[in-house]
Backbone:
């Protein structure tokens, strides 16, 4: 099974560069077939032992916990595996809205899961009335596949494999989307983001993330050797995610919806009672494979916080030599430089300040273009920005223009697109007579920053391997002029 799994994983990651449109077209049918299949597999066994349905009474769970106490708490580590995947229902709520999620859950998912799990319970009750029977041993060893008649066993395995591929595809696409958002919010360096659809913006491919996921998944499968050995890692990963999501819900309720701390805290507290109980039960499996997701999460967290801290240090260093644009303009009025034909676009994160590349241009070339555009790309805390609100153009004096482009954290900036939108607002530019001036920064380790040594080394590694602004912003390479600068870290 391990070689077959590795082959399936390899094929899955190899087709990612072609986009998710083809795979996405079969998401719904495959998932529907899967849930219908597990429901039909469990239904006959429920009919043979309908008494199993009394388990819907939560009083049995409470009684079990009181009677078994510590052992009941330990069982939660395995019980949580029955609900893993439920959180994935809400991953695409931003695309579909709450109504389809509710219909899918109450109309298909919940009934199918209940029939499957109650069918397994009925199977165990029916097969294990005589202790030590062969049927009982098989049912205990693999209760799900024991539900299926022998002629349908391999078709069920194929359906399960297809459903797993669909679930894996959803996870991979989510990793691409989260990486894009992290880049836009400044938590990871710029990476190559390939748009695989001309009509759907959300369909993207991130080669470096795809490669890292492929290597990690194949390594985990090869080392673990069986799905049962992955249960501990999976349980900690999912319950940890659920607890973190509850905490983030508190922040959203307070800052976005304006809820009071008492109202938000009461609801989140109820969530955390369940989440923390499940997470605590799984922590007992920390040394049986549960350490892996925690180490992986720590690694990702270290990269994100290091890049953010380094970016703040860079901003503080640039602020020390910042010259407000009004001061530069006053100096240019007293000593006007030579103006040459064409348009120069200088990109900067500070629209009120003077771009460092503009200062270098004046210092070394002592000329300015007849039209100078100060361009700022801003990422807002919302997924998308309407096209009519994207670009803001302000005409300054003496041929200077200020352009501010707004993008959502799920969008990839495109400078030529911004310039076309600015042209519609009166900023005339001509192809072949427009140059983009970018600053290329080189970080030098001198110990001036307050970053620990390992963070300094990690930040410089990330900076060296970050995608160039020319590629990231979609600027034609033959129209770019890069002016270098050194920043001590």
Residues:
């Amino acid at each position: 099974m391990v070689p077959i799994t590795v082959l399936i994983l390899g094929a899955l990651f190899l087709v990612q560069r072609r986009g998710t449109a083809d795979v996405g077209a079969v998401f719904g049918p495959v998932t529907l077939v899967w849930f219908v299949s597990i429901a039909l597999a469990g239904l006959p066994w429920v009919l043979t032992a309908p008494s199993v349905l009394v388990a819907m009474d939560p009083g049995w769970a409470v009684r079990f916990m009181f009677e078994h106490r510590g052992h009941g708490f330990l069982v939660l580590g395995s019980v949580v595996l029955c609900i893993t995947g439920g959180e994935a229902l809400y991953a695409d709520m931003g695309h579909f809205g709450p109504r389809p999620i509710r219909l899918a859950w109450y109309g298909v998912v919940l009934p199918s899961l209940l029939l499957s799990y109650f069918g397994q319970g009925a199977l165990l009750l029916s097969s294990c009335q005589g202790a030590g029977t062969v049927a009982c041993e098989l049912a205990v060893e693999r209760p799900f596949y024991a539900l299926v008649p022998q002629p349908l066993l391999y078709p069920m395995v194929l359906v399960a494999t297809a459903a797993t591929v669909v679930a894996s595809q959803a996870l991979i696409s989510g990793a691409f989307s989260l990486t894009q958002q992290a880049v836009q919010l400044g938590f990871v360096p710029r990476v190559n983001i390939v748009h695989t659809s001309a009509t759907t913006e959300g369909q993207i491919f991130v080669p470096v993330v795809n490669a890292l996921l492929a290597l990690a998944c194949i390594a985990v499968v090869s080392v673990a050797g069986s799905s049962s050995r992955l249960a501990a890692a999976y349980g900690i990963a999912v319950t940890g995610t659920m607890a973190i999501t509850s905490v983030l819900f508190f922040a959203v309720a307070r800052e976005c919806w304006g809820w009071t701390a008492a109202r938000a805290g009461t609801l989140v507290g109820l969530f955390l009672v369940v989440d923390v109980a499940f997470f605590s039960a799984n922590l007992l499996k920390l040394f049986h494979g549960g350490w892996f997701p925690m180490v992986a999460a720590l690694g990702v967290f270290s990269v994100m916080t290091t890049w953010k801290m380094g970016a703040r240090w860079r901003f503080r260093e640039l602020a020390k030599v910042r010259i407000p644009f009004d001061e530069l303009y006053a100096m240019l009025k007293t000593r006007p430089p030579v103006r040459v034909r064409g348009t120069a676009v200088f990109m900067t994160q500070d629209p009120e300040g003077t771009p460092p590349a503009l200062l270098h241009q004046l210092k070394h070339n002592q000329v300015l273009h007849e039209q100078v555009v100060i361009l700022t790309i801003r990422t807002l805390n919302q997924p998308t920005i309407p096209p009519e609100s994207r670009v803001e153009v302000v005409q300054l004096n003496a041929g200077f223009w200020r352009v501010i482009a707004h993008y959502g954290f799920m969008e990839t900036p495109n400078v030529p697109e911004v310039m076309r939108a600015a042209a519609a607002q009166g900023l005339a530019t001509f192809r072949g007579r427009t140059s983009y001036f970018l600053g290329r920064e080189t970080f030098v380790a001198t110990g001036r920053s307050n970053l620990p040594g390992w963070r300094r080394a990690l930040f410089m590694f990330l900076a060296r391997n970050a995608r160039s602004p020319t590629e990231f912003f979609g600027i034609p390479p033959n129209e770019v002029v890069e002016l270098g600068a050194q920043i001590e870290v």
